[in-house]
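User: Can you predict the 3D structure for this chain?
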Amino acid sequence: QVQLVESGGGLVQPGGSLRLSCVASGSISSIAPMEWYRQAPGKQREWVASIFSTGITSYAGSVKGRFTISRDNAKKTVYLQMSSLKVEDTAVYYCKQITYWGQGTQVTVSS
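Assistant: Here is the predicted structure, written as structure tokens:
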């Protein structure tokens, strides 16, 4: 069993920054990638970024150059640093590993 708990969401103005955290506990895999997804109101959940055990990262085109995913294996934590936020980044952000999901954290970008 794996538990994932996200935090760090909130309200931010366009152009601002936020850092999301996802703390994992339980039988977490040290090999499987950690991923961030998001779901905006009325839209399907979409993949945002992945980080592999090798440290290799991958991003959706809509966030590339603005978001950075990283992980601290000792703390069993994955981060999503979000910069130059846009109104269209508003969504609930979820952490995922394999088939395990967190409960999500709300990010609202609004002036």
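The chain has a mean pLDDT of 95. The two ends are 40 Å apart (CA to CA).
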